[in-house]
Design a protein that fits this description.
It is built from 15 helices and five strands. Helix 8 crosses helix 9 and helix 11 packs across helix 13. The longest helix has 30 residues. It has a three-stranded parallel sheet with strand order 1-2-3. Strands 4-5 form a two-stranded parallel ribbon. The protein has two domains: 223 residues, Rossmann fold, CATH 3.40.50; 82 residues, Tyrosyl-Transfer RNA Synthetase (Orthogonal Bundle), CATH 1.10.240.10. The chain is elongated. By secondary structure, it is mainly alpha-helical. The chain binds tryptophan. The site of tryptophan (TRP) has 14 residues, from strand 1 and helix 8.
Length: 358
């Protein structure tokens, strides 16, 4: 028997189409790693509901969009199980058990949660319990599949740390090494700024280039990108650090010598933003064209995409239910089944009501 392949798990919330930020932070790694690993990718619709409880339609509609983005990017259903979180109830069960191992204040200290709370503006005292506790549900996602590797962007590192803590706490408390401690796999460039120069590309900030964007949309977005605000005239020396245009070039360009030369020229002065942007546009068009073409192809075969999701979910559920059984056994709470099994042995039922002697 060949050696068992290691397992990868990642996920995305289906709240919109995927963009270049997803591609750089995680998607690209998933496409290349699916050959060596057993990969599961979770369309995390339950997690999406933690801040979209009033809008399940949005979550529902975006499941297909995200699936199309995966397939278009080169995630192969032959190598990767794409699955839908809400169809794997074992994940919710695991979450319940893990909840007892995490304190409220630990969740409140989670840097990703803190950051997201600022953006979400739930209002004083109105943070949904589900939102605060989603790191626990994410730990359930990761551990349910026994994932040892999680390819994510750096914004997800606190989630991984939280998961690792839960794993250690669980294994320690129940004195069995049931859960696997996962490692994050973060690419060298894992975070893209938005086209407006804000720290993060995100759908909610409206500063994203989507994998499905049409060529003229891409071009318009690139040409409108924020650059060095002090680089007013072509002959002025410019800054390439924290300049989104150059950060994108670093992330997507393959001709590193040419990019180094352009940076030098820009720093010195004499290289205009328009020239750099035109070059970036060429590069992004080249990266996105095959993805867009494949996406349109898959869009024509939606029932087959649903089938891919169904099969991926089925495989995922099998694995998750094994983990859940191990978890319950380690906790010693698999007794109810054995009580039920006992009663099955009884052939004839006779309810005896014994009166206590007076
Ligand atoms: N929290 C991740 C995001 O917002 C999505 C996600 C859900 C995830 N479950 C996961 C990522 C498990 C990695 C592993 O993008």
């Amino acid at each position: 028997m060949d050696e068992k392949k290691k397992i990868i798990l990642t996920g995305d919330r289906p709240t919109g189409k995927l963009h270049l930020g997803h591609y750089v932070g995680s998607l690209k790694n998933r496409v290349s790693l699916q050959n060596q690993y057993d990969q599961y990718i979770l369309i995390a619709d339950m997690q999406a509901l933690t801040d979209n409880a009033g809008n399940p339609q949005k979550v529902r509609d975006n499941i297909l969009e995200v699936a199309l983005d995966y397939l278009a990017s080169g995630i192969s259903p032959k190598k990767t199980n794409i699955c839908i979180q809400s169809m794997i109830p074992e994940l919710a069960e695991l979450t319940m058990y893990y909840m007892n191992l995490v304190s409220v204040s630990r969740l409140e200290r989670n840097p990703t949660i803190k950051e997201e709370l600022k953006l979400r503006k739930f209002g004083e005292g109105a943070v949904p319990v589900g939102f605060l506790t989603y790191p626990i549900s994410q730990a359930a996602d990761i551990t349910a599949f026994g994932a040892s590797l999680v390819p994510v962007g750096e914004d997800q590192l606190p989630m991984l740390e939280q998961t690792r803590e839960i794993v250690r706490k669980f294994n320690q408390t129940y004195k069995r090494n049931v859960l696997v401690e996962p490692q994050a796999l973060v690419p060298e460039i894992s975070r893209l700024p938005g086209i407006d120069g804000k720290a993060k590309m995100s759908k909610s900030l409206g500063n994203a280039i989507y994998l499905a964007d049409e060529p003229d949309v891409i071009r318009k977005k690139v040409m409108s990108m924020y650059t060095d605000p002090n680089h007013l005239r072509v002959q002025d020396p410019g800054n390439v650090e924290n300049n989104p245009v150059f950060m994108y070039l670093d992330a997507f360009g393959t001709d590193k010598d040419k990019i180094a030369e352009m940076k030098e020229h820009y720093r010195r002065g004499g290289l205009g933003d328009v020239v750099v942007k035109k070059y970036l546009n060429e590069i992004l068009q080249e990266v996105l064209e095959p993805i867009r073409i494949r996406r349109k192809e898959f869009e024509k075969y939606k029932p087959e995409v649903y089938k891919i999701l169904e099969l991926g979910t089925k495989n995922a559920r099998q694995l998750a239910s094994k983990t859940l059984a191990n978890v319950k056994s380690a906790m010693g709470i698999d007794y109810a089944q054995s009580l039920f099994d006992e009663s099955k042995k009884i052939r004839k039922w006779k309810i005896v009501i014994q009166k206590t002697k007076s």
